[in-house]
Amino acid sequence: MRIQNNVPALNAHRNYSINATGVSKSIAKLSSGYRINSAADDAAGLAISEKMRAQIRGLTMASKNTQDGISLIQTAEGGLQEIDNMLQRIRELVVYASNDTQEHNELSTGDRQKIQDEINALVEEIDSMSERVEFNKKTLLNGDCGVSSDPAKAAAVAKARADYNSSKATVGAYQTQIATDEKTYSNLIDKISSAINSMRTDGLAIYAIADNGVAAEMQSFAGALDDFMTSLSAIGKTGSSSADTEAILSTTASLEEALDSLSDAIVMLSTNATATGLASRIKGNADKIDGYLASLGSALNRLNGDDGASSDATSARYNLTEAQTSLTTAEADLRTAKQDVASAGNGGTPLYFQVGANANQGITVSIDAVTSLELGIGDGNGSSTIDVLADSGTEITNQLDILDEALSYVTTQRSRLGAVQNRMEYTQSSLEISAENLTNAESRIRDVDMAKEMTNFTKMNILYQASTAMLAQANALPQGVLQMLG
User: Can you tell me the distance from the alpha carbon of 73 to that of 67, in angstroms, rounded to the nearest whole number?
Assistant: First the structure.
């Protein structure tokens, strides 16, 4: 028997401490629901779990960012929709004003002035809205969120667009003038041909009555008539060959001389009533042809100019060629100006949406300026460049091309934002799925299996109670020494 070192008690105490620690850990797991409550529980598991938690929280916040980004895009697209509606209304008003039933006068009381007043108000509202559409104090449509709001470059585009539209209108005006002159020319040829055929019929009738009394004059007239018709045939009904202009004018003079000689010869037949009547009809047709020929020469000059080079500058076809050259140049200048704006990249700052848990997992969105200057319908300060106060509807209708381009500009922006919104909606769905899957994976590492841990707790609790009882028994063993001393 030994009393200095109670080895059984020491052994019982050691097991008691182990069981007490096990019970304590089991209670901690059961009460917290976590398998890992400290690094000592599972150092590697804790490191993996913490990285997953960072990822999960990042994904959750990215999902919120995505929702905010979708809201911003919806706000911008809503503003663009209203600008689109205003442009549609302006276009409708321009079509309305282009009809020459609308009155215009210098007293600013005509119908077109009232239409212009509404257009001015709508353009002013477009500029106002471009500064008013905001999301969380961030202006969306004034170019701050885009790359094309450099005022100098935007002004260059506006000027190039104005030059292009002006050249296009000039080309259209000359094309209209040529079509009108060609129609006038064609109608004159038809009238001359009809009068000549009538004169030929009447001349043959007179020739039969006069018994060769006007044979020489009729032969001269027939020759001049054939030459004239040949010249007309060479040019055609459009008068398109300027090289034949001199020929038609020359044969016109010959025909007029032949007509005068024939008329003088017919006077000798005044004793014959029938011949006199036919002669009178021929004279009437001859007078008509004189007028037609003068108009025909004028129409040819408008189409092709005279035979001199200096007068070509006033002909419709010459001016059309020059205008088409100017239009080609203006179109190239406009394309260059637009490319300069697109490549500048120094107008604003595109929006960046962080839609991932890690660095550089974002979406960049550019919203270009939607002012009247960018749209080509104003100066950007509320003043309209759409003018419906012209006297002719033809001049007004040319501005429809400007509005079509402005509508295309807005709808392109809207479609781009719509595509980004759809993308972000898919992104949000993906983020939620990823967060769910990562949470499930992190739960397997960190959460406790309650059923398994209850089994362990029950075991450790029983061992704890048993070790307590055995410790008491071991402590009582040295009391046997007292019986020997007694």
Answer: 10
pLDDT at 198 over 90: no
Tell me the backbone φ, ψ of residue 181, rounded to 5 degrees.
-65, -40
Burial 422-436 (b: 16+ CB within 10 A, else e): eebeebbebbeebbe
Q: Is 3 helix (H, G, I), strand (E, B) or coil?
A: coil
Long-range contacts of 215-224 (CB under 8 A, 24+ apart): 216/265, 217/258, 217/261, 217/262, 217/264, 217/265, 217/266, 218/262, 220/258, 220/261, 220/262, 221/258, 221/259, 221/261, 221/262, 223/258, 224/251, 224/254, 224/255, 224/257, 224/258, 224/259
Cα 38 from Cα 26, distance rounded (Å): 13
Query: Whole-angstrom Cα distance, residue 212 to residue 429?
Result: 105
Predicted pLDDT at 61: 94
* H runs (alpha helix) in 345-386: 372-375
Q: pLDDT per residue over 132-186, tens digit each?
A: 999 998 999 988 887 545 666 667 777 777 787 778 778 877 777 777 777 888 8
What is the spatial distance between Cα 181 and Cα 204, in angstroms, rounded to a whole number? 34
Q: Which uninterrupted H or E stretch holds 352?
A: strand 351-354
Please give the helix or strand (H or E) that residue 363 lies within, else none: strand 362-365
Give CA–CA dist 401/377, Å, rounded.
11
